[in-house]
Design a protein that fits this description.
binds zinc ion, Rossmann fold, 26 helices, alpha/beta, Arc Repressor Mutant, subunit A, disordered C terminus, binds adenosine-5'-diphosphate, about 625 residues, single chain
Length: about 625
């Protein structure tokens, strides 16, 4: 271990209470300390922030972090301050007093990190400070914002191209979670990085369990999934604003602490919802994709998509908001073939409006197709995602997706079932939608069926042994596989195509997935392991304590301690400050500020619960 190594170690322990670095973090930190340009690509939750937080401490200097959103800067600075790390953010949201305070701190060199928006960097005043304070190193967070090819282009980021021009001696360190080669090359070119160290992390997120459920009833399915996560943080993504409102209301009616979030709300309400979520007073946010960057809550245990996103990049980015603390979390995509059709026409329309080049439309369609094949194929999800990002997935069994967990079962005789459904469509003259076809197949006795005399058909009740929702689900699977067409418009009807007839003539085999409910969901080993030895009741009461402390301090709850640390506390139950100090995630400042309170809480808890435990062991 050289001198720098031990300084890095000491820094980690002091501020964060960590003992080890994750792969690539060390190389990134070294590049930062040495002032060598770098591009670091790691998935969300990969641990990028440490890579720019450690170098200025070790090198005893002040660095600048460029960040796209005020909310992101604020949360980071709050978090760093709780750890005793000297940092500040300079942004337009500061009142004059705070602004003066930050500026005088900057003049005195009291900070190790200054967070600023890209446009501020090129302001004369800031440039003057950079020169006076001899600032040499810049981290560019969310660096993909500089690229047109990314999913989050921000014109302000283009101004960063000036940096190398104006201050040739500086080093730039770009960080992003966007993996595509095109974006990567664009970042290097735009920022004019010189011979950068390129550090590309693994895109697999082993702590995430991926599932794709054929969508039958988005509300019921979402509720069922969220019931596995009662009291935990979750994000549900919907395609439209109206859907977010309806679904959030439905969830709230079932006793979940849920609210909606979309770009059509007034900014004040949006801000409040986001704050409530960050403060853990809200568990579930039902949102459009407008809810995204700036959500730093690290204990999100579940991300549900009620419809398919436009591309795998989008999916990875949004689903990636789960489990940033490294603990197990679940990502579920509710999928129907109808999604692809809806998105396709949306994309075509907006391309026409924007008079986009044919290549742009083509690219969008290709991305959509790749997303669709992820959703409808039965390959290991971890392998499929890794490969999409150009990385081989070595294990042949991930143990963390619906396919590998063997939750996806085929319908025993898919072809015969498909024939039953298709002939029902034929017998009803291809004039009805999926819902009615399902009604006929299960033998419903509703008015519409009697009105059309569909209870007299030979296909009436052919699938009466299945629940109606399952039948509906199977019908959609046929649509998805292109074995039957679904018309556009308000009330889409099902129509047979040439493939349908091949199936009915027995010339084509069909595989169908068993529509499944939550009962088939396996608990993963990682999930059980992450709870091993954890006193759940203590964990919950520690969360409560965390919530209170966060409220008192006006900071997001996770900056007090992450879930990983709370579980460790609920496992080890330290009742002395010394033991407390040894827990991963406890740095010096938090030991001082929070140690007393947490230790007292744990002692009290143990005193209250131990007699109970004794009785348990005596009788059992
Ligand atoms: P990113 O910015 O890449 O999305 P973060 O920097 O927010 O990721 O880190 C994600 C989580 O991982 C945080 O909770 C952080 O405390 C934790 N983390 C990062 N590096 C380490 C490490 N070396 N050891 C333990 N936890 C870490
Ligand atoms: Zn798998």
């Amino acid at each position: 271990m050289d001198a720098v190594d031990s300084q890095i170690q000491a820094t980690l322990k002091k501020f964060w209470g960590f003992d080890t670095l994750r792969p690539l973090q060390e190389a990134a930190i070294r590049a930062g300390i040495e002032g060598r340009d770098s591009l670091v690509v790691m998935p969300t939750g990969g641990g990028k922030s440490l890579c720019y937080q450690v170098p200025p401490i070790v090198a005893r200097r002040t660095d600048v972090v460029v960040s796209p959103l005020i909310a992101l800067m604020k949360d980071q600075v709050d978090g760093l301050r709780q750890s005793g790390y000297p940092a500040a953010a300079l942004h337009s949201g500061l009142d004059p007093d705070s602004q003066r305070e930050v500026e005088s701190g900057m003049a005195e060199g009291s900070y190790r990190l200054i967070f600023a928006a890209p446009e501020r960097l090129v302001s004369p005043r800031f440039l003057q400070w950079l020169a006076n304070a001899e600032i040499r190193n810049f981290a560019v967070d969310e660096a993909h914002c500089i690229s047109h090819w990314g999913h989050d282009f921000r014109p302000e980021y283009r101004q960063l191209a000036e940096l190398k021009h104006r201050l040739p001696a500086v080093s730039l360190h770009a960080f992003t979670a966007t993996a595509t080669v095109r974006v990567r090359d664009d970042i290097i070119a735009q920022l004019r990085l010189r011979d950068p160290v390129e550090l590309i992390g693994s895109f697999d997120r082993p702590n995430l369990v991926y599932r794709v459920l054929p969508r039958t009833d988005a509300h019921a399915q979402t509720l069922e999934i969220l019931n596995r996560h009662r009291g935990e943080a979750a994000i549900v993504y919907c395609l439209s604003r109206r859907e977010t409102e309806e679904l959030a209301a439905a969830l709230a009616a079932h006793g979940l602490r849920a609210a909606h979030y979309h770009a059509g709300m007034d900014p004040e309400r949006r801000r409040r919802t986001q704050e409530e979520f960050m403060a853990e007073r809200l568990d579930v946010v039902v949102a459009t994709v407008a809810f995204g960057m700036g959500i730093d809550r690290s204990d999100v245990r579940c991300v549900i998509h009620t419809a398919m996103p436009k591309s795998i990049e989008h999916y990875q980015q949004e689903a990636g908001r789960a489990g940033r603390d490294g603990l197990p979390a679940e990502c579920v995509l509710l999928y129907s073939g109808a999604d692809a059709m809806r998105l396709q026409s949306l994309i075509e329309r907006s391309a026409a409006e924007a008079q986009a080049l044919p290549q742009v439309l083509e690219t969008s369609m290709r991305l959509l197709q790749q997303m669709r094949s992820y959703a409808s194929s039965l390959r290991c999800r971890h392998a499929a995602l890794s490969e999409y990002f150009g990385q081989r997935y070595e294990a042949d069994q991930c143990g963390a997706c619906d396919v590998c967990l063997d939750e996806v079962a085929g319908v025993e005789d898919g072809t015969v079932t498909a024939q039953k459904i298709l002939s029902c469509i034929a017998r009803t003259d291809q004039r009805f939608g999926a819902a009615h076809i399902a009604d006929v197949l299960v033998g419903s006795a509703n008015a519409r069926i009697r009105q059309w005399k569909h209870d007299k058909l030979t296909t009436y009740g052919l699938l009466a042994d299945l629940p109606r929702k399952s039948v509906l689900n199977l019908v959609y699977q046929l649509v998805d596989q292109g074995l039957v067409d679904r018309s556009d418009g308000e009330r889409p009807i099902l129509e047979l195509n040439s493939l349908s007839w091949e199936v009915m003539r027995g010339e084509r085999k069909v595989q169908l997935q068993q529509p499944r409910g939550g009962d088939r969901v396996a608990r993963t080993r990682a999930d059980s392991e992450s709870w091993e030895g954890v006193d759940r009741a203590l964990f919950e009461s520690l969360r409560e304590l965390r919530r209170e402390l966060a409220m008192q301090r006006g900071v997001p709850a996770y900056v007090i301690f992450g879930d990983a640390t709370l579980r460790e506390l609920a496992r080890l139950k330290p009742t002395t400050l010394e033991d407390f100090a040894g827990v991963r995630g406890v740095g010096e400042k938090k030991l001082q500020d929070l140690g007393g309170g947490f230790v007292a809480h744990i002692r009290e808890y143990c005193a209250g619960s131990s007699p109970q435990r004794h009785r348990d062991t005596e009788t059992g």
